């Protein structure tokens, strides 16, 4: 059997030529044949969803849907696929939960609709009693071996939870309390993320998760870091309208603050992904999606974060709340917008394309800034590891001072 | 007389409950309910209108492309801009790919298991099997199950095709007002064309064949599920520049001639829906409702859209009738056959659009959005007529309304007691075993319901 380390390497690199599944399937077969592991029984519940993640799963290649269902998992209940209907289907669901307690995996798609005590969403009926989605996952989650939230709605509430959140949508982890929920966000989640996470669970157990419980092997790096247009960002070549050549930062790309491997993995059998197609990343794998990403076509410093709207003055505070991993990218965003602020704002308005900019000048400054940003970033990472609070605060102070001095010099804000 | 409930109705998109009254082996009355409320229009309120295309798509994972197209149309009208010729062709190609995946999945993943017996080798969860009226001979049965395996890959290929110009699928990301952000380079045209050819062959040689085989063994379904016979469509796939639609809009009442549809006469009724609305019928632009889960007698989150007091059916069969492509009848089987034939027609149209692309031609144009505006985007989605109505001021959406196809088809009763189209179609359906309402499931699935789309809040404004 493949070593866990090799598996992770495979997941993180096997994205250019061969697909993930193409390499994983033979391993799976071998493992299953030797009865080292068994196909796990899976119950897939759809709550406040659009079915997009089930469609994404159906879009999987290598393994295709059929292979996935016959060779990887033992899908017992999913109301989109179950042959039987009504009571007979519910019986399958309840039997699995009961007989396979402690063994079955609970996959949830869609947000938990928590308003009105869950009555905005019913999922089945038992003894003539209608059961809400909220009640169902609370009951099933404790019995499940693993709880997996597929898609941004199930993970963090997603579009269903966007302001004003009329249905009281919640991510599964908020609804089930202290059970570990593996979050596979994305709108929808890429099929590789779904099949890859499940393969890891089956072969090696729980994958390493980040602070939002996302598997690091798919969500460990930012879109910005992996982007094909990254060099154009560094070179100061920016598209002034979606669809044009150049980095899409000015027309709203959320790549710098979005952790996902789309640029490498691509979508739908590796044919394309948004930035490659001229469309800015909308940060759909972010915990704050979509509110934190909107307006989609406005550039980053305008985005709303848990501490309010991010702008240059608030960067220090943002660093503290958002976490070290995102410091550098936010910094870059802040710094960058500040240097050529007015042109940026203009550039996002379709009515007023950006005027030509002295790119050479910008580039030189950016190089400098990126060096400083990298230095700060590595410092922050080290701090996070040590969890040395005083030093962390000292760093925050340094970052704040960094801005303060610049303010005194009277540059534009 | 017995009352029976199917909940959940499986192999449909999202929670659907059906209650039927059965007497002497026939359905005598029916109630269908959507049981999920998310409230999407309220979410659109106050946001940048340009975001409508991408956010509205999130209503539905199976027909995301249709919402993008309707959203972009509404914005084009509001901004006073027009799609570039190549932008329009690319939009059509993205949407066509989405329609093809939907039709293949509808038949091979959702509908098929109503007619084909699963003997432990299908690909669905088959821990429990349907019993009852399955008529296909063993060999044909197994052959179609084999086709279903290929079809799941074909449908995934159709979504790859969509992603070639749409960046990803579902929830494409490239459609914007005036066109598409992706360029029509020759390599992409070739890639799209090669998948399209494969799909077209599959539709022609396998899909249509399987549909007709099933129709041959279940001929009585040509007489079941007729409904009101009121059909309508907003049309779809506008041509570049002229805007003439490849599928024309229209209305057919009681199998009469094709009439023009007046969009101003659409109203929505929420008498039997969980909304607090005292005013009865309203035009979608004036909808004024808040959710009220404790409303007595209400049974669905879906509202009841009506046209001059009538419940209308929409979908591939309606498009077939209106365009003269398919006029055999109106029934469960007609819906399935018309859909397969439409898939073939759309594959042919996509070939023409692909041939009309010029590599390097602009696929969108820079536009300036006026400070305020108002637009309407009407198009057919896979399963019927879809409308977006949008108003914005000071760069912020002030009103956003959507009526989806499933809202029409799966509407509950209205104040006058007129049943929704599916409720009506269920009347008279023969039932062999009242504990196993397989026939009722067949009627419901022929409409390709998508409840995630159907349920939405009409914004108080």
In terms of topology, how is this protein built?
The complex is a heterodimer of chains A (413) and B (461).
Chain A: H1 4-13, H2 20-33, E1 41-46, H3 52-58, H4 65-72, E2 74-77, H5 86-99, E3 105-109, E4 112-113, E5 122-126, E6 129-132, H6 133-141, E7 146-150, H7 152-156, E8 169-170, H8 172-176, E9 181-184, H9 191-204, H10 216-219, H11 223-226, H12 230-234, H13 262-265, E10 304-305, E11 308-309, H14 315-322, H15 324-339, H16 341-348, H17 359-386, H18 389-408
Parallel strand pairs in A: 1-2, 1-3, 3-7, 7-9
Antiparallel strand pairs in A: 4-8, 5-6, 10-11
Chain B: E1 2-6, E2 16-23, E3 26-34, H1 40-44, H2 52-57, H3 64-79, H4 85-111, H5 138-166, E4 175-176, E5 179-180, H6 186-217, E6 231-233, E7 236-238, E8 245-247, E9 250-252, E10 258-259, E11 266-269, E12 275-276, E13 290-291, E14 304-307, H7 316-323, H8 332-355, E15 373-381, E16 384-393, E17 396-403, H9 405-409, H10 421-426, H11 438-445, H12 451-454
Antiparallel strand pairs in B: 1-2, 2-3, 4-5, 6-9, 7-8, 9-10, 11-14, 12-13, 15-16, 16-17
What do these coordinates show?
The complex is a heterodimer of chains A (413) and B (461). Chain A is an alpha/beta fold. Chain A folds into 2 domains: 216 residues, NADH:ubiquinone oxidoreductase-like, 20kDa subunit (Rossmann fold), CATH 3.40.50; 186 residues, Irregular (Cytochrome-c3 Hydrogenase, Chain A, domain 2). In chain A, 44% of the residues lie in helices and 10% in strands. Chain A is built from 18 helices and 11 strands. In chain A, the strands form 4 sheets. Chain A has a 5-stranded parallel beta sheet, sandwiched between helices. Chain A has a two-stranded antiparallel ribbon with strand order 4-8. In chain A, strands 5-6 form a two-stranded antiparallel sheet. Chain A starts with a helix and ends in a 5-residue tail after the last helix. Chain B has 461 residues and is of the alpha+beta class. Chain B contains 12 helices and 17 strands. Chain B has a single domain, classed as Cytochrome-c3 Hydrogenase, chain B. A 3-stranded antiparallel beta sheet of chain B has the order 1-2-3. In chain B, strands 6-9-10 form a 3-stranded antiparallel beta sheet, with helices on one face. Chain B is globular and about 65 Å long.
């Amino acid at each position: 059997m493949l070593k866990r380390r090799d598996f992770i390497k495979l997941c993180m690199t096997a994205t250019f030529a061969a697909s993930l599944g193409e390499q994983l399937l033979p391993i799976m077969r071998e493992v299953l044949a030797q009865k080292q592991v068994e196909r796990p029984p899976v119950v897939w519940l759809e709550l406040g969803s659009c079915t997009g993640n089930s469609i994404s799963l159906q879009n999987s290649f290598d393994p295709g849907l059929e292979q996935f269902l016959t060779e990887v998992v033992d899908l017992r209940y999913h109301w989109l696929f179950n042959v039987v209907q009504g009571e007979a289907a519910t019986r399958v669901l309840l039997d699995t939960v009961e007989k396979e307690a402690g063994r079955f995996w609970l996959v949830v798609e869609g947000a938990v609709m928590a308003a009105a005590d869950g009555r905005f969403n019913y999922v089945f009926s038992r003894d003539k009693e209608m059961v809400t989605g909220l009640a169902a996952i609370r009951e099933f989650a404790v019995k499940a071996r693993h709880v997996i939230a597929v898609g941004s709605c199930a993970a963090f509430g997603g579009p269903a939870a966007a302001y004003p959140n009329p249905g009281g949508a919640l991510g599964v982890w908020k609804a089930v309390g202290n059970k570990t929920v593996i979050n596979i966000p994305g709108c929808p989640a890429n099929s590789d993320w779904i099949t890859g996470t499940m393969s890891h669970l089956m072969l090696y157990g729980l994958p390493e998760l980040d602070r939002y419980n996302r598997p690091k092997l798919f969500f460990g790096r930012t879109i910005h870091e992996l982007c094909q247009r990254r060099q154009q960002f560094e070179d100061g070549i920016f598209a002034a309208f979606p669809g044009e050549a150049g980095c899409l930062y000015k027309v709203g790309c959320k790549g710098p603050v979005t952790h996902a491997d789309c640029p490498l993995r691509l979508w739908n059998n590796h044919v394309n992904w948004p930035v490659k197609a001229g469309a800015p990343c909308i940060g759909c794998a972010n915990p704050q999606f979509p509110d934190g990403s909107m307006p989609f076509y406005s550039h980053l410093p305008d985005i709303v974060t848990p501490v309010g709207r991010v702008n240059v003055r608030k960067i220090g505070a943002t660093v503290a709340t958002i976490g070290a991993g995102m410091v550098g990218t936010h910094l870059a965003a802040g710094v960058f917008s500040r240097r050529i602020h007015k042109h940026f704002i203009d550039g996002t308005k379709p009515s007023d394309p950006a005027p030509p900019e002295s790119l050479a000048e910008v580039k030189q400054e950016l190089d400098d800034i990126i060096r400083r940003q990298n230095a700060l970033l590595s410092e922050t990472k080290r701090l996070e590891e040590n969890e040395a609070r005083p030093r962390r605060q000292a760093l925050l102070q340094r970052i704040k001072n960094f801005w303060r001095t610049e303010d005194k010099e009277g540059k534009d804000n | 007389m017995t009352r029976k409930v199917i909940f959940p109705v499986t192999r449909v998109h999202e929670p659907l409950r059906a209650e039927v009254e059965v007497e002497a082996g026939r359905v005598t009355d029916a109630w269908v309910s959507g049981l999920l409320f998310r409230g999407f229009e309220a979410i659109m309120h106050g946001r940048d209108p340009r975001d409508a295309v991408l956010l509205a798509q999130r209503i539905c994972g199976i027909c995301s492309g249709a919402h993008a197209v309707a959203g972009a149309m509404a914005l084009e009208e509001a901004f006073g801009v027009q799609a570039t010729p190549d932008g329009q062709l690319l939009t059509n190609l993205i949407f066509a790919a989405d329609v093809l995946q939907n039709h293949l999945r509808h038949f091979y993943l959702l509908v098929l298991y109503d007619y084909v017996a699963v003997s432990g080798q299908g690909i669905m969860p088959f821990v429990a099997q349907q019993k009852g009226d399955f008529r296909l001979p063993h060999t044909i049965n197994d052959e179609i199950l084999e086709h279903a395996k290929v079809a799941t890959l074909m449908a995934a290929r159709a979504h790859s095709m969509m992603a070639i110009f749409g960046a990803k699928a579902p929830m494409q990301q490239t459609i914007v007002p005036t066109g598409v952000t992706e360029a029509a380079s020759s390599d992409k045209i070739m890639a799209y064309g090669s998948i399209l050819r494969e799909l077209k062959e599959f539709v022609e040689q396998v899909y249509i064949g399987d549909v007709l085989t099933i129709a041959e063994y279940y001929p009585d379904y040509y007489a079941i599920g007729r409904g009101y016979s009121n059909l309508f469509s907003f049309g779809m796939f506008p041509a570049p520049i002229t805007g003439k639609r490849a599928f024309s809009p229209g209305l057919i009442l009681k199998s009469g001639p094709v009439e023009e549809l007046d969009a101003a006469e659409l109203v929505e009724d929420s008498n039997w829906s969980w909304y607090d609305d005292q005013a009865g019928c309203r035009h979608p632009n004036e909808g004024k409702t808040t959710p009220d889960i404790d409303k007595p007698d209400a049974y669905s989150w879906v509202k009841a859209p009506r046209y001059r007091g009538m419940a209308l059916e929409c979908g591939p069969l309606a498009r077939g009738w209106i365009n003269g492509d398919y006029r055999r009848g109106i029934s469960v089987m007609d819906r399935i056959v018309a859909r397969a034939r439409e898939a073939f027609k759309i594959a042919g149209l996509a070939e023409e659009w692909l041939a009309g692309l010029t590599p390097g031609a602009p696929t969108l144009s820079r536009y300036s959005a006026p400070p305020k505006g108002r637009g309407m985007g009407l198009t057919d989605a896979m399963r019927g007529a879809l409308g977006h109505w949008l108003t914005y001021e000071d760069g912020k959406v002030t009103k956003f309304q959507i009526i989806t196809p499933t809202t029409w088809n799966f509407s509950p009763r209205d104040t006058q007691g007129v049943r929704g189209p599916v409720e009506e179609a269920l009347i008279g359906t023969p039932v062999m075993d009242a504990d196993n309402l397989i026939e009722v499931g067949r009627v419901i699935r022929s409409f390709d319901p998508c409840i995630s789309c159907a349920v939405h809040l009409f914004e108080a404004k």
